């Protein structure tokens, strides 16, 4: 399957792996790239030295293209941007900060920029700022989310941008992939679905929790703080939601939430940790290898297309 995204990124299939802190390490990233997609390192929690080591580990495992996800709020952002250019990473994705400033530093060094955006307006801004492509992410997704669902976001973003566009949020099988293309996307990005693969570097407790969860087992916290996050319902997230509803100070909530994602995904504490995952968890009932997942996605696309009315 060829699209502008596959041609631009030199990948076989139009599938990107969403970058997730505490999960998207070299084994997962390399497996996705080896299987024909684009693996992306979750670099937001890494120091420059840690990120450099992770990039080298990926290159020890594959010679295929891959990307790095960054955050402008990192205290090392200047060094990290220099590092991406120095290491000639293919693509950087990011969801916060001023896209223009990041693009201006990366583009001259040959690193492509794909901002992750929650609205048509921010997609248009990214294009105007010179982004090479854009990832539009709907509210169904896990982790940090916006207000618009993927179904309405993707076509509206397509109407205002001409650059290559990736759809994300609530996509976990071939049906979602085909739907995304029908809405105007040229590739998809999946996060939650890739957590539940054998190569994902996270605790089995978290994978099993996602597998046994349904589409109504998530909630969005952080609406009051301005940083909404979708995660699975558990003791931690429900306590946080109660703190919000009773008007607890933002500083108190920030302190309560600190370190909770690591607690869940690396230590396996799925009650007191934050298990960020999307509504697509209701579609997930297995933990395949990355290669098995991508091949089933592509084969499934053909079956879905064959079933469509003509």
Describe the structure.
- The structure is a single chain.
- The chain is an alpha/beta fold and 310 residues long.
- It has two domains: 4-140 and 154-201 and 285-307, TIM Barrel; 204-279, no CATH class.
- Helices cover 43% and strands 14% of the residues.
- The chain contains 14 helices and eleven strands.
- The chain has helices at residues 4-9, 26-34, 48-61, 77-86, 99-106, 120-128, 150-160, 174-183, 192-195, 204-211, 235-245, 250-257, 260-265, 290-307, and strands at 15-17, 39-42, 66-70, 91-94, 112-117, 134-137, 143-144, 165-168, 187-190, 218-221, 229-232.
- An eight-stranded parallel β-sheet has the order 1-9-8-6-5-4-3-2. A three-stranded antiparallel β-sheet has the order 7-11-10, covered by helices on one side.
- β4 (91-94), α5 (99-106) and β5 (112-117) form a beta-alpha-beta unit.
Radius of gyration: 18 Å
- Number of contiguous helices: 14
| Sheet with most strands | 8 strands, parallel
Which topology of the largest domain does CATH recognise? TIM Barrel
State the CATH class of the largest domain.
Alpha Beta
Q: How much of the polypeptide forms β-strand, as a percent range?
A: 5-15%
Q: Give the N-to-C terminal Cα separation.
A: 20 Å
Strand order of the largest sheet: 1-9-8-6-5-4-3-2
Residue windows where pLDDT falls under 50 for at least 5 positions: none
Helical proportion?
40-55%
Category by helix and strand content: alpha/beta
Give the rounded overall mean pLDDT.
97
Report the count of strand segments. Answer: 11
């Amino acid at each position: 399957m060829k699209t502008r995204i596959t041609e631009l990124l030199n990948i076989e299939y139009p599938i990107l792996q969403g970058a997730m802190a505490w999960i998207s390490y070299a084994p997962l990233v390399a497996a996705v790239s080896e299987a024909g997609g684009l693996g992306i390192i979750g670099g937001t929690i890494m120091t420059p030295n840690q990120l450099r080591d992770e990039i080298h580990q990926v290159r020890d495992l594959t010679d295929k293209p891959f990307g790095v996800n960054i955050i402008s709020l990192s205290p090392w952002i200047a060094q990290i941007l220099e590092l991406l250019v120095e290491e000639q990473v293919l693509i950087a994705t990011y969801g916060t900060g001023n896209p223009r400033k990041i693009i201006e530093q990366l583009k001259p060094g040959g690193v492509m920029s794909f901002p992750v955006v929650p609205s048509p307006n921010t997609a248009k801004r990214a294009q105007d700022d010179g982004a090479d492509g854009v990832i539009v992410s709907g509210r169904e997704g896990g982790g940090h989310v916006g207000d618009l669902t993927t179904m309405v976001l993707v076509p509206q973003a397509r109407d205002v941008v001409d650059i290559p566009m990736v759809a994300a949020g609530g996509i976990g099988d071939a049906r979602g992939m085909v739907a995304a293309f029908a809405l105007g996307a040229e590739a998809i990005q999946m996060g939650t679905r890739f957590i539940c693969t054998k190569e994902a570097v996270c605790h089995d407790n978290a994978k099993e929790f996602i597998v046994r969860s349904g589409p109504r087992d998530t909630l969005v916290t952080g609406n009051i703080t301005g940083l909404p996050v979708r995660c699975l319902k558990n003791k931690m997230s429900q306590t946080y939601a109660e703190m919000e509803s009773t008007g607890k100070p933002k500083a108190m909530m920030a302190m309560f939430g600190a370190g909770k994602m690591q607690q869940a995904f690396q230590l396996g504490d799925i009650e007191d940790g934050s298990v960020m995952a999307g509504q697509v968890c209701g579609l997930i009932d297995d933990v395949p290898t990355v290669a098995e997942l991508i091949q089933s996605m592509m084969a499934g696309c053909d079956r879905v297309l064959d079933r469509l009315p003509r």
